[in-house]
Every structure is written in structure tokens, then in C-alpha cells.
């Protein structure tokens, strides 16, 4: 047909309304929310996308300690691997052992550790509570601590090397302290005994 109106509205032509909303075209509303398109809300929270709240929550769950810090540690080298200092930490010697005693029994502790064993009382630092008592001799220290729920330690004990096991055994026996000899430790002679509170002690001497 040659009529201009028919050329604009006839078959094969495009209705302007259909151009925006017809089949095969894209409705602006559908462009934002239709199938195959991305809803801005879904873009943030939909499947395959990251919810900012979840992102923070996941980060809290999977957060790792800062370098040099493990859970419950101060970040200082613990000497277990040498990974911080480049070499293993050497354990030099045991600084002190500890025994417990009933509250208010410092006098009995002094009578045994000072009088019977012959150790010297070591002054406690003024920064610590003025209870209990410390003893030392020959680089060995034993610290006595009062315990309101005191129970004698019959198993765990310090083992102290001495230069004359027989002389010490005789000294203890002279004070009525029972000495139990034990020859099951190769390379050493030793005996076990108990302090005035029932805590076990071990003394030993290396074979010549």
C-alpha cells in the first residue's frame, strides 16, 4: 500500500509502544527486575553474591591471630619451635620447686626445711604476699605456699641432686624422718622421704 498512514501502522512496521514493551523488546522495568536481569537488592543478597553482613560475620569467624600470636599466648617465643628467634630456646635449669602446706604453718616449714634439711630461708620479694616461706641452698630453691584446701602431694615431687647422699640420710634419720632407699634409677643412688606435711621429696647422687 502506498498510503502513508498504512506504511506507519501496517504489517511489518514497529508500533512505538511495542518498541518499548513488545515481545522481543526490553521493558525498562523488566530491565531492572525481570528474568535474566539483576535486581539491585538481589545483587547484594542473592545467591552467588556476598551479603555485607555475612561477609563481616564470616570474617569474624575465620579471623586469624596476628603474626607471632597464637590463641592464649602473648606473642613471645615460647621456645617450642624457634620460629621467632631463629633457634630453640635453651632451658638452663629449674629455678625453684614448690610445696604446699596448711595455712599458718610457716613455723613447721622452717623447722623442717631449715632445721632438718639445713636449707637457708630466702627472703620473699616485697611485691609478693607475706605468707609462706622460701628456702634455698646450692642453687636450689624450694618455695612453700599456704593452701586453704591443703592435701599432701604424695606423688609429684622435686628430685634434688646432692654430693653426699649417705650424710643426708643419716641427718634425716637422726631427726626421726623415715628414709626409703631405691636402686631402680640407673646411674644414681637415691632415696625418698616426706616433709613435715607429708609432701614427698627425692634426693639422689650420681654414681662415681
Topology:
Elements: H1 4-9, H2 16-21, H3 28-33, H4 40-45, H5 52-62, E1 97-101, H6 106-116, E2 120-122, E3 133-137, E4 140-146, E5 159-161, H7 165-174, E6 180-182, E7 188-194, E8 200-206
Parallel strand pairs: 1-4, 5-8
Antiparallel strand pairs: 2-3, 3-4, 6-7, 7-8
What does this entry look like structurally?
- The protein is globular, with a radius of gyration of 42 Å.
- The longest helix has 11 residues.
- Strand 7 and strand 8 form a beta hairpin.
- The protein starts with a helix and ends with a strand.
- It has 208 residues and is α/β, with parallel strands linked by helices.
- The chain is built from 7 helices and 8 strands, in the order H-H-H-H-H-E-H-E-E-E-E-H-E-E-E.
- The chain has a domain of 110 residues: 2,3-Dihydroxybiphenyl 1,2-Dioxygenase, domain 1.
- Helices cover 27% and strands 19% of the residues.
- It has a 4-stranded mixed β-sheet with strand order 1-4-3-2, with helices on one face.
